[in-house]
Design brief:
Layout lengths: L6 H8 L3 H9 L6 E3 L2 E3 L2 H15 L4 H9 L8 H43 L4 H16 L1
Antiparallel strand pairs: 1-2
Length: 142
């Protein structure tokens, strides 16, 4: 007999609530068998849950995850699924790298503003602050 899991088993293993797992069932991403009131999850359900949770962690939408999972069922040795997933991963990576660059620029600007305010608080003459910051701006522009 193949291995099966209960909702509690998967909940513990993946660190999610049973409600989360039921949500993915409602979205037709998981299709457990039923034994009375109990849900019985197959190895396929377990693998799909792992895929869903990884996709969510890296920022894929539920629609994107659904698309990638649905491609598993094509009869092409998973080639299409791998190609589409790779393209989506590369796109997501590029978006995250752009976000990081934006965050780095914002952090640098905020840190500079904090330094300016600290100098003003410390009583550094305004003319000296202007000269220092003007020199920094000039060096960046050159």
């Amino acid at each position: 007999m193949s291995q099966t899991w209960t909702i509690s088993d998967l909940s513990r293993e993946f660190g999610v609530t049973p409600r989360t797992i039921r949500f993915y069932e409602d979205e037709n991403l998981l299709t457990p068998a039923r034994e009375g009131q109990n849900r019985i999850y197959s190895a396929r359900d377990r693998a799909r849950l792992a895929w869903i949770l990884r996709g969510r962690r890296v920022g894929f939408s539920l629609a994107e995850i659904t698309e990638m999972l649905d491609l598993y069922d094509l009869d092409d040795g998973r080639e299409t699924q791998r190609q589409v997933t790779l393209e989506k991963c590369r796109d997501r990576l590029a978006a995250l790298e752009n976000q990081r660059a934006d965050l780095d620029a914002t952090i640098d600007e905020l840190a500079g503003f904090c330094r300016l305010l600290e100098e003003l608080k410390a009583g550094v003459p305004l003319e000296e602050i202007r000269r220092k910051h003007h020199a920094k701006l000039r060096s960046v522009a050159e």
